[in-house]
Design brief:
Distance between the termini: 33 Å
Radius of gyration: 18 Å
Mean pLDDT: 95
Shape: globular
Order of helices and strands: EEEHEEHEHEEEEHEH
Structural class: alpha/beta
CATH topology: Spore Coat Polysaccharide Biosynthesis Protein SpsA, Chain A
Largest sheet: 7 strands, mixed
Helix content: 25-40%
CATH architecture: Alpha-Beta Complex
CATH class: Alpha Beta
Number of domains: 1
CATH superfamily: Spore Coat Polysaccharide Biosynthesis Protein SpsA, Chain A
């Protein structure tokens, strides 16, 4: 069983300039989750999929650079495009698509989710934050009756994807083009692991967390 983890990386981004090489703690943002994946024993390869070879200066030793086509850096390109290109370039039975914007993802989190796919019959796995609170969508509550307001501990939780990683089989991607399958395992993560850097505010918060709480 060949397991390949990969991170698709652009050297620049719209909302946070040069996001992937911004310093989080003692290392660049893109360093952290790659370094974590390298320590997961079940993973056979950890790849950096980027059009710019300069990225090698910012990733940990052991992460393998694979050059992707420059058109995949376009602002209109979706994750599905880069995943398909990577799957076409790299053979594996199971892929772990990792997001560098989740620098506080732990190795045991990846390991647990991977075990579920390998041995417990799940066809995929993804990270999510459990929210047991009053949630609304399009003007209506989605997890409680507005005429009977429950205690929060009695509510049905909702799960919000954090996108730290998606684990999926090659068969699932080739046949259905889906990173989340028909029987997925939801890997719950807490407040720190759920941090995802999409905005400048997120970046500043992650820097404070890394420097003053985690000391990484």
């Amino acid at each position: 069983m060949k397991i390949v983890a990969f991170a698709t990386i652009k050297m620049n981004s719209e909302r946070v300039p040069h996001k992937n090489i911004q310093q989080i703690g003692s290392k660049p943002l893109c360093y952290h989750i790659l370094d974590t994946a390298l320590k997961v024993k079940e993973i056979n390869r950890v790849c950096v999929y980027c059009s710019n070879e300069d990225i090698v200066k910012y990733v940990p030793p052991g992460a393998e650079f694979l050059k992707r086509e420059a058109w995949l850096d376009g602002n209109e390109i979706r994750a599905k495009d880069t995943y398909t290109a990577f799957v076409n370039d790299v053979e594996a039975d199971i892929y772990i698509a990792m997001c560098t914007t989740s620098p506080f993802t732990q190795g045991k989190t990846i390991e647990n989710a991977l075990q579920k796919v390998l041995y417990e019959g799940y066809d995929s796995a993804f990270t999510a934050k459990r929210m047991q609170t009053f949630a609304w969508y399009k003007g209506n509550p989605i997890n409680y009756d507005i005429n009977y307001v429950p205690r929060t501990q009695d509510m049905e939780p909702v799960y919000v994807e954090t996108s730290a990683f998606f684990i999926f089989t090659k068969e699932l991607w080739i046949k259905h083009g889906r990173r989340i399958g028909f029987h997925p395992y939801i890997q719950e993560v807490g407040e720190i692991e759920s941090v995802d850097i999409d905005t400048m505010e997120d970046l500043e918060f992650a820097k404070i967390l890394a420097d003053n709480v985690l000391h990484i």
